[in-house]
Fold each of these.
Amino acid sequence: MSTATTMVRPQETAATPAIEVRNLRRTFRIKGGLLGKDREVVAVDDVSFSVPTGGVLGVVGESGCGKSTLARVILNLLPPTSGEVLVEGRRLSALDRRARARLIQPIFQDPFSSLNPRRRIKDIVAMPLVAQGNIPARQVNDRVAEMLTRVGLSAEQGERFPAQLSGGQRQRVAIARALVLRPRIVICDEPTSALDVSVQAQILNLLAELRRELNLTYLFISHNLAVVEHVASEVAVMYLGRIVERAEADALFRAPRHPYTRALLASVLTPEPGLGVPDVGLGDTLPDPANIPPGCRFHPRCPVAEPRCAVQVPQAVATTDGAAECLLLEGAAQP
Amino acid sequence: MSGAVVMPARRRVAWGKRAGLVIGGVIVGAVLLVAILAPWITPHDPFVQNLDNRLSVPFWMEGAKPGHLLGTDGLGRDYLSRLIYGARISMLIGLLTVVTSGLIGTTLGVLGGFFGGKVDDAVLFAITCRLAIPVVLVALAVVGLLGSSLTLVILVLGLLLWDRFAVVARSTTMQVRNLDYVSAAWAAGLSTPAILLKEILPNIASHLAVVATLEMALAILLEAALSFLGLGVPPPLPSWGLMIAEGKDYMFFSPWVIFIPGVALFILVFGINLLGDGLRDLLGAGDTR
Amino acid sequence: MSAPLLDIQGLRVEFGDTAAVRGASFTVSRGETHCVVGESGCGKSVSALAVMNLLARGARRSADRLVFAGQDLLALPERRMAELRGDRMAMIFQEPMTSLNPAYTVGSQMAEVYTRHRGGSRRAALDRAAGLLAKVGITAPGMRLGQFPHQLSGGLRQRVMIAMALMCDPELLIADEPTTALDVTVQAQILRLLAELQRDLGLAILLITHDLGIVARIAQRVSVMYAGEVVESAPTAALFADPSHPYTRGLLACVPVPGKVKREEALGSIPGVVPRIQPGFEGCAFRDRCAHAAPVCAGPVPRQRGEGAHEFLCRLPPGWTATERAA
């Protein structure tokens, strides 16, 4: 399969991208029960992209599109079935756990399950430093204290247990833990989805400040397009394991090319009264990663699908600011 | 918000259950204390026989002798002293068995639950095999073959009673392993043993503590049964099961010789179970967010 | 105007020493969607449960007035209340899996609701269920009737919940975060469905949500709740055009709006956290987080009336936002 999603732009060729993903694929086996056959679920299907240092790539898509699996594969929490992840030009799979931890760190969605309930906050934040094995205890304490202050928590809160903090405070702890080693890249997997609106704003602001301050690169996964539009410089839209469209954030929100992107954007409910609820026109068939349709994988739900969409697999087409995989775009219908 | 809805109800339930926890804790604590302090609090040497003073009745019956609060047994040994030393044996067997079986079961269960795949298959196979072994029969056979001793009873029970630890450790590890804080620890560069010891074990410990109480009660009862059959603790060591066995010849004329150790056994096992139930409710509630 | 279908005045709910709802008032008329919006812990879900008399044991409910279709719900015995629930007033929840019984098929659960309230044959009930499944946009309703809840996707389950709520032609539908667990595309579909059903059936909908986007798009009237009180209530357009309570304004500033809020620019945020409110709390619950707080805020707070039916609970006079803009 040709991989036109690898869009190397001129300015990127010079500097090594902070993160580069090449032909990443991850499948799962699902046991078929007593008599049924084992099924293969393709969660991430030949995904390639790169993010320049200091950039924010937003990854959007519905549940089951493979965005969380992508995050876990990039973090090396799951080994890829094939393909590779390069962080600052180095293959992630070849790094030892300590070196990997210094480069890339996660922030997860649910601040209630992402903190060990039996540990004190300061110990949770200290964990990545302690895991390095060669940092003196004094220095660990100093850096933990500094980090807690930076994310807006007091030293007194450092002595507490996770259950004694609110959701927003817990997410601050998770951010402190992720940044205490000064990593280069942070994978944010729905970091604000479990939070209240006002708390979400605080956390988004904090993440933006920290990114500028520490020159971090973010992979920002979310189902909330309004949030992604606010934080991302580039956006990748995932559908059933593939990136079906990728573009500069402004371009994508101004002129979406792929019908799926258009549907996603149409379904964003902005707080503007009088507009009513949009008709996204996607029909009822929901995507099933264990049963990916032939041809264009979006065709059963696509409002503008043509007969050929059920047969022909679309190739990625370069657009002005990115690429999209749709047969209806000019130049997509190669044999 | 749902937390706020549920909380008051939960608090009320917890208070009712806490009474069980307190009663159980007091019983087990008292027995443990008595067992530890045995040499200092027994009124008589539990091994000294006095054939002139056989089957002296306990204090609530007519003709009780001062100095022998619970009377004497068929060989004239002070029954209270034997009961106190018997608590030692019961607690010793209960605790050591649980430590042994807990170590085996937890290790197997955590490894199986954490690594999954082939390791888990092996652990499951071991559990299945163990469940197919009739505990009492094997214990009888082994003790019968090798002769009874305290160490052997503890070893046999310890090596046989780990299945529940393994099952619980395995299933709870599987749940915890998928939580984000374990992923975060992995991403933070923690080694696998460190993840197992620092992230997983503390979070399944409460479940294991509950299993431990149940297994302890079971071990104590099994020891009593083995001793009753003459295959547990060798005489003249005063085990409660052995005391019941020794008393069975006199049960028609002096029923209290079995009644007293029987009640002691009942109270201890009852207390341990109360403690376990209370612990489960307390820690279970603490585990939820 | 005719009397509202649901009239709640001064609703209070307390759990032990926590006051979850403190004198909330709102009304829902036939054919109207009234959104109650607020953050977690503000008392919006508890209010909905209180109307249905589905509060957890240990909760104390009281109100000055709680009237549904002319019936005083406060005086209604639980047996009569149970007859109303699922019949004339129905509720749908955020996570349909917790309110559908996993052990029964969709069809038997839907039929059960109907036969319990309306009697009649199971056959007729199943026919009605199939018709409603089709109405909520489920293809092959006959097949779905024979399926178990776990065999359905989240969006389908929510549609089944809605269809089940409609089995007895309710007059009032209470929806507690009905789309929060769903994908955005499915959310849009479900909300459209609710709007259509309302138009066709003249339903009154009380919709509980935390999402101001949903409020803007489907509500006719909005009540903003904070710390157990309705701090602002207005027709939707008026609320978004002129949010008057400082909390409402803060909340709106927190939401990123594509094309309106600039990227990289900090979002508005509300400092501090929601205070814990005990019974007997005095003054404005928002005063510790409010930029306009004054010493008088610790005393009784007046309910201001702006133009139209726009009300808010604050010391600031109606129209203060206009003078502030001018200044």
Amino acid sequence: MPLIDLSKTSLRDLNASLHKLTADTNETLWTIVNPAGEHSIAAGVDAPITINIDGPVGYYCGGMNKHATIVVEGSAGQGVGENMMSGLIRVRGDASQSAGATGRGGLLIVEGNASARCGISMKGIDIVVKGSIGHLSAFMGQSGRLVVFGEAGEALGDSIYEAHLYVRGAVAGLGADCVEKEMRDEHRAELAELLKAAGEEHKIDVSEFRRYGSARQLYNFNIDNVDAY
Amino acid sequence: MTQHERTWIPTSPRKSSTFDDYTLSEIRRAAATGIYDIRGGGSKRKLPTFDDLLMLGASMSRYPLEGYREKCGTDVVLGTRFAKKPIQLAIPITIAGMSFGSLSAHAKDALGRGASLAGTSTTTGDGGMTPEERGQSKILVYQYLPSRYGMNPDDLRKADAIEIVIGQGAKPGGGGMLLGQKISDRVAEMRQLPKGIDQRSACRHPDWTGADDLEIKINELREITDWEKPIYLKIGASRPYYDTALAVKSGADVVVLDGMQGGTAATQEVFIEHVGIPLLSAIRPAVQALQDLGMHRKVQLIVSGGIRNGADVAKALALGADAVAIGSAALVALGDNDPKWEAEYQALGTTAGAYDDWHEGKDPAGITTQTPELSQRLDPVVAGRRLANYLKVMTLEAQTLARACGKNHLHNLEPEDLVAVTIEAAAMARVPLAGTNWIPGAII
């Protein structure tokens, strides 16, 4: 059970140690103290371990994560879990902009609010935000699911492809080609599954959410659509 | 003279320079279709180029080197600033980033083979790394683009260097679009989008804004790859002095500067022809920025955009670049726009040498297409050998010029080896007009 004090150990040494771990490592629980907003903590991990970070982190915490479970006991800076491939990242506090950007798999949970561009260009990641999200979230979202307990800012899902968006609160505005869609049983089931994965099952009623996705009107370039932008 | 005789004095029909044939055809096309023209390639307008510079061979004041006997080195090391594993190239000519998607798998395969035979690197593009490309490329640069199509840490670690793309010369400030007709099953899978729909590439990165953020992003990529890989920053030439300075500030190992003659898979004609600056005008400000920061030769400079032959290579290096990159010329070496397909070019309403509708995926040469019947026309082994031959000739040409200037390595070429034959080129390249000591615009 390694305990790393980032006031004494360099970020480089920490990440180098994490990168050396293999799938069958016995060192499966890591604790990092005094993160003090350092950037790129636990970026590029590729092992089924749990990393508890005792405090706030800077940019790109858990970037490109594979298999690891990372828990941030504080807030996270820009691009938490960017391009993550698998595993789970939980932020107990708020997350800055571009949370889960381009993520290709895994689950990102933000217990506070997320900022602008949450889930931008998402490519298969699941994101659950218990608070609200900022403008231009899920911009060009290709696939994956974004669940928001609170509200969404302007231009939600602008130029969205096939990502699924579920928002419980008010949406300030939808972006180009993003529309509200019918919530059918399969969507309620999908949402329930996501809430369960996030540890929020039975705490919140899936029927309170509304679903948004692509109108698929801008999938192929058509000059008659130029006014849509 | 009678009235009848006066009316019979003919004048030649005169076409307008302003409204020339191309302009008229473009007005008619726009009027008929209501849409702007999209095409591939780089700027086709006449621009100041390296042809406007001449090299000063040695004579009384400098000794030349013997052409067929004395050594003239060509190797270059890229990424010496921070990377644990810098890139070592046998020649200072690299292959620029071009995507699988815009190019066929065979074309990417051939680029890798040709580059490897010549001892240089090739580069992925917007669409990820294919196993064929990694397999055939001894040295592979992995592009990190705003779209992040196919991005993953495993490929990042398989790469020999990482190139963060801020922009490209054909369209500084622009994103991209791969039209649905080129989205095969494989391209769709690699980009994680449905088949047949247009795939847009954003013009801004999704998780950083500005040089301060970029510095943190670069450090993240270094952390993920354990500080092994050189990190390049590719910029489209528009404000090269400031962009190069900011690239250095952000922590780049290598700056890739692409002039407006650099090609694109598909962009609006108006963008290609009216945004950005020619490579000739971009190199000296970039070198100046490196020199002002004490980083010239410490952060290496690769320049691209219209490089065609060994003379261009020698002149670019004399102006202060460490290496060049070629894209359009490499495709021509593979077989792009070859006159042997003239009948098919005619059927597409164009002619060999002018074909640029690369986005339509109908390339008779089988290079800018995903259609199996067309892409099979390109033999990767033969095409790779052609590219290697071409790279060898360029290198020999550059060496010939360097020896004539008395240089035992291409990197010893310097601005003092050059003069310009036009005032414009003299001002842009900051070398004297031939026969004078006048550098227009120089602050004395």
